[in-house]
Design goal:
four-stranded antiparallel beta sheet, globular
């Protein structure tokens, strides 16, 4: 299993450091700094109280927690949220409440998962033509409905 160094700074003493629930998990839980309410069919920016420093060539991706989604209709609005390696500010999570019930959370509630990945830097090159492929320009639903 590959590992990469991620420096973490608590911006407030009560902030909770990210941690995995079980060995080998890809996602580390992010927790809310304070409690709050996300009204039904609304969204909010939730503070975590931490900042991270990622190694160059890596990115932090903020994913929803499946349990929150299944039980409460809570998801990450811009999933996955992107934390670039040059960002040094507080990690905040845009949570969306897709349910018809207000979502009440406490300080320390596990609100999202942080996944660290390596990425490729694209070298965009304009072209007039692409090579042929089986799919071609087939878009949404191009393989049928079943």
């Amino acid at each position: 299993m590959n590992q990469t160094k991620v420096l973490i700074k608590k911006l407030y003493p009560e902030a909770v450091l990210p941690k995995t629930a079980t060995p080998g998990d890809a996602g580390a839980d992010l927790s809310s700094l304070t409690g709050g309410i996300i009204p039904a069919r609304s969204w909010a920016s939730v503070d975590t109280g931490i900042a991270i420093e990622l190694e160059p060539g890596t990115v932090g991706l903020v994913h929803p927690r499946s349990g929150l989604a299944a039980r409460n209709g809570i998801t990450v609005l811009n999933a996955p949220g992107t934390i670039d390696s040059g960002y040094r500010g507080e990690v905040k999570v845009l949570l969306s409440n897709t349910s018809d019930t207000d979502f009440v959370y406490d300080a320390g509630t596990r609100i999202a998962q942080l996944v660290i990945q390596e990425y490729l830097v694209p070298a965009f090159q304009e072209t007039a033509e692409f090579s042929e492929s089986v799919r071609g320009e087939g878009g949404f639903g191009h393989t049928g409905t079943n």
